[in-house]
Amino acid sequence: MTDRGGSQTKVVNAASADAKTPRTERGRRTLRKLLDASAVEFGEKGFHEASVSSITRRAGVALGSFYTYFDSKDALFRALVADMSENVKSSARSALAPDMTALEIERAALAAFLDFAREHKEIYRIIDEAEFVDPESYRTHYETIAERIRMRLEAGSASGEFRAGLGELEAWAVMGMNVFVGLRYAVWADKGEARPSDEIASAVNALLAKGIARRK
Amino acid sequence: MTDRGGSQTKVVNAASADAKTPRTERGRRTLRKLLDASAVEFGEKGFHEASVSSITRRAGVALGSFYTYFDSKDALFRALVADMSENVKSSARSALAPDMTALEIERAALAAFLDFAREHKEIYRIIDEAEFVDPESYRTHYETIAERIRMRLEAGSASGEFRAGLGELEAWAVMGMNVFVGLRYAVWADKGEARPSDEIASAVNALLAKGIARRK
Questions:
Q1: Minimal Cα distance from B160: which residue of A?
Q2: Per-residue pLDDT tens digits for A58-117
Q3: Are B94 and B112 in contact (CB under 8 A)?
Q4: Taking CB atoms and an 8 Å cutoff, what residues of chain A touch B208?
Q5: pLDDT value at position B172?
Q6: A148/chain B closest Cα distance in angstroms
Q7: Is residue A142's pLDDT more than 70?
Q8: CA angle, residues A20, A122, B204, in degrees to nearest 5
Q9: pLDDT tens figures, B15-45
Q10: Alpha helical stretches, state H, chain B
């Protein structure tokens, strides 16, 4: 398989555990359509009510093509969770610039996540439903994100920008902040109160940088 | 109805929206048994597989008694979510002492929550399933907790212990930290790595107090 970068690579990475790998560009597009249609279907109906025939209809793909790539609705769901994890990661990564400080990286990653969650509100419902449909995917999703944050925090400690001793516990705390701020301000934002992602990310970043205690 | 305080009050508060109010002490005990048994049943099997007959069997209560208090499995589930919200609140409250600083209150509330979550690991699964079974209960659960944290943060700002300007956004961030640290260290703690709740709460409290930036 030739790695041609960009979106093709993303599809292949994301779905590799549960989808058969397409060998052609057309196949990659079909797989992408199925994943996108399944996000809408699972997000609207939930896993149990969702159906393969409705997903292929949404995707404009023949039912037979579905089984070229997935063995079952379960396999598609697992591939979708992995795909969403991958998309969260790549959306954060694409917001980063080489000259950012460690703190700016946290702010930019959160702002990108908030934008992503506004565009794909179904991500919360799908990831949360994974706790019941496929607990291992659920746990892997969060463990993978926490591990990435831990590495960033430790790099910041090592460079002297962050205080020493940051690790896994702080990474889970940071992830929790980001997830719940996203739930409140990206997914549950009432109409007319849409605060820009940058503004929210900056407020969370200030909390992360200096905490809440008044400096004496 | 005479408010006789203590656990009776808790049952009545917690279940008032969806359970009929028991008029006798024996009735309150029956209602408590049904809520406790349902927590185990919903935690183990999930909402859809759980059954009223299995819950009454676990509770050692006659099936007819169930319908004295609840109209349906749905009503019991909603009452259980409200009961868990109430128990989270009262476990945090019982850990507080009058002479605590605002920061100590956050630490003690988190330590109490971690102890509670270790004892009642099913709480995560039940609250998370509410997102699908009864979205309004799910949202109310988190909005209520965030509102309590917001009031504590604003009190800390007002007294000058915390910096000015803390509000709803910081409250959701703090709630997210606590929820995800609880998920990792209370619910998903691997055997042999059980860190004491106090130690975890202190590390989160340090993050909350001073953030992660190195002080210059």
A1: A214
A2: 999 999 999 999 999 999 999 999 999 999 999 999 999 999 999 999 999 999 999 999
A3: yes
A4: 211-212
A5: 98
A6: 15
A7: yes
A8: 105
A9: 456 778 888 999 999 999 999 999 999 999 9
A10: 6-15, 25-49, 52-59, 63-69, 73-94, 102-119, 122-133, 135-158, 168-182, 197-210
Measured between alpha carbons, how far is residue A200 from residues A142, A203, B31, B106 in Å? 22, 5, 43, 23
Chosen from B212, B214, B215, B216 to mutate, greatest number of chain A CBs within 10 A:
B212
Please report residues of B whose CB lies closer than 8 A to that of A169. Answer: 181, 184-185, 200, 203-204
Q: What is the ipTM of this complex?
A: 0.90
d(CA A187, CA A197): 12
Nearest-Cα residue of chain B relative to residue A103: B213
Residues on chain B touching A189 (C-beta within 8 angstroms)? none
> Residue B16: its pLDDT value, please?
52
Tell me the per-residue pLDDT of A5-60, one tens digit each, with 9 for 90 and over.
Answer: 344 444 444 445 678 888 899 999 999 999 999 999 999 999 999 999 999 999 99
Which residue in the set B168, B177, B214 is minimally distant from A163, CB to CB? Answer: B214
Which pLDDT band holds residue B192 (cuts at 50, 70, 90)?
low
Closest CA of chain A from B64, distance in Å: 31
Which whole number is the average pLDDT over A151-161?
A: 97
In chain A, residues with a C-beta closer than 8 Å to the C-beta of B203 are 169-170
Token pair 């202190």 in the structure block, residue = B202
Residue of A nearest to B139 (CA): A188
Domains of chain B, first to last: 6-77 (1.10.10.60), 95-210 (1.10.357)
Structure-block tokens of residue B123: 């709480």
Q: Give kind and range of the element (H or E) at residue A44.
A: helix A25-49
**Chain A residues near residue B158 by CB distance under 8 angstroms:** none
